[in-house]
Amino acid sequence: MLNKIAPLLLLAALVPFTQTDAQTTGAEPDPVTAAIEIGRSVLEADRQVVIAQELPLTREEGEQFWPVYRKYHEEAAKIMGRRLELIRGFAENYDDMSDSMAEDLIKGVLKNDEAETRLKQKYLRRFQDVLPADKLLVYYQLENKIDTYVRARFVEQVPLLSDLDP
């Protein structure tokens, strides 16, 4: 089972999420969680580098933008943490996925997508307050490109339920 699902869980590292149970309880993380946490950290650092390189900000704009950016990504991490739990649910139950489980996963993914959209809408005004429209558009384009790239790499590795038959 782990051989088929390990790539799925490791690719979940491309999705940022909040603290793991190990971080909050002080316990040692399992190897998959540790790999995911490392991947998440690398992705977030890379994302910031790309945005810093491609979004030309004045000193004043940067001083206002980066705190809003960090707060946005803190909140986005919580939503992505829930997505990771959905992925784990799929991985843990694929051998005996019931119709009810499948429907719950679908609903969970849709709910997660809605939460992402609400967060983007919530932060639009905050970003508008710190960036002129042209730079705001560049920022949203960069976020969209990075997210699309990450999701594309991710879905390439997510097996269809029918592909998981032994």
Question: Can you describe this structure?
Answer:
- With 166 residues, this protein is mainly alpha-helical.
- It has one domain (2-159).
- The protein has six helices and no strands.
- The protein has helices at 2-11, 21-25, 31-54, 59-93, 99-130, 133-157.
- Helix 1 runs parallel beside helix 3 and helix 3 (31-54) packs antiparallel against helix 6 (133-157).
- The protein is elongated and about 55 Å long.
- 12% of the residues are buried.
Features:
elongated; single chain; 0% strand; 6 helices
Q: How many domain regions?
A: 1
- The chain-level mean pLDDT equals 78
**Strand count, sense and closure of the main sheet?**
none
Ranges where pLDDT stays below 50 over 5 or more residues in a row are 1-24
Looking at the structure, what is the overall shape? elongated
Helix content: over 70%
Whole-angstrom Rg: 18 Å
Please trace the helix and strand order, writing H or E for each element: HHHHHH
Total E-strand runs: 0
Tell me the span between the first and last alpha carbons.
9 Å
Assign the structural class, choosing from mainly alpha, mainly beta, alpha/beta, alpha+beta, or little secondary structure.
Answer: mainly alpha
Number of DSSP helical runs: 6
Q: Approximately how much beta-strand content do the residues carry?
A: under 5%
SSE diagram, text form:
Layout (H helix, E strand, L loop, with lengths): L1 H10 L9 H5 L5 H24 L4 H35 L5 H32 L2 H25 L9
Write a brief caption for the model.
With 166 residues, the chain is mostly helical. The protein has six helices and no strands. It has one domain.
